[in-house]
Amino acid sequence: MSLASVSLARSGGATSPPAEARVSPAVLDFAQVYDAHVDLVWRALRRFGVAEASLEDATQDVFLVVHRRLAEFEGRSSVSTWLYGIAVGVARNHRRTRRRRPEQPTEGVEDELVAHGASPERSASDRETVRMLDALLGELDADKREVFVLAELEELTAPEIGAALGLNVNTVYTRLRAARAAFEQALARLRAREQDEEGRVGP
Question: Which end of the chain is more exposed for a tag (fewer CB within 10 A), N or C?
C-alpha cells in the first residue's frame, strides 16, 4: 500500500456526490441536504477517527448543527465543504470525550466501505485495504489526519480544505506535506512489523 494505492479506499463503496454548484441559502432544504449528504458525513466521520459505536450519534450531531446553522449558510463554499468542516469539529469532540475502552469491531464499517457487488476475492482484498488504511490513519495526529483524509480520500482541493478547516492555503500545503510523510513512515513501520512476523513464522 502507498499513497498511490490509497485510491482503493477513496470512494468508500458509495458513489461520490456530483460536483455542486454554489447555491443560495434560500434554496437549501434541510431534508434535501440530509438525504444528499448523510453517507458523505458518515464516511468522513469514520475516517476522522470516530469509533464505530459512536458513528450514529456523531452523524446526528453533525446534522443538529446543520439544522441550527442552515439559515447562516452563505454559499461561499459548496454544501459538502461546509459539511466537512462541521464533521471535523464533531469528530474532534467525540475523540476528546471518548473514554478508554476496548476497540469496537469494525467489520460492519468495512462492509460499508468496500465496493458493493464485488467478487468475494475483491471484497476480501478491499476489506484488508480498509483495515490497513484505518490503522495507518490512526498513527497520524489529528491535524495531519484531517488534512490527509480531505485531500487523499475525499479529494478536496487545497482551497476547499482551507475553507473546511479555517486554514490558509499555505498552511494546508504544509500540513499535507507533513501528513504524507507521516503516512509513509507509518506504512514503513507496518511493513517492517509484517516482515518481522513472517520471519518468525518461517516456512
Answer: C
pTM: 0.75
pLDDT tens per residue, range 3-52: 545 544 554 444 344 445 444 445 689 999 999 999 999 999 999 999 88
Which sign, positive or negative, has the C-alpha torsion 67, 151, 117, 130?
negative
From 153, 33, 49, 150, select the one nearest 98 (Cα to Cα). Answer: 49
- Which is nearest to 41 in space by CA: 159, 26, 50? 50
How many Å is the maximal CA-CA distance in the chain?
67
User: Cβ distance 163 to 18 under 8 Å?
Assistant: no
Give 200: exposed, middle or buried? Use CB within 10 Å, 0-12, 13-18, 19+: exposed
Could you identify the residue written with the cell 454554489? 22
Domain 138-203 belongs in CATH node 3.40.50.450: no
User: Which top CATH class is 17-104?
Assistant: mainly alpha
- Output the CA–CA distances (angstroms, integers) from residue 10 to 96, 103, 115, 124, in the order listed: 26, 23, 10, 16
Per-domain residue ranges for the chain? 17-104, 138-203
The alpha carbon dihedral of 154, 155, 161, 163 has a sign of negative
Cβ(169)–Cβ(141) below 8 Å: no
3-class SS at 51?
coil
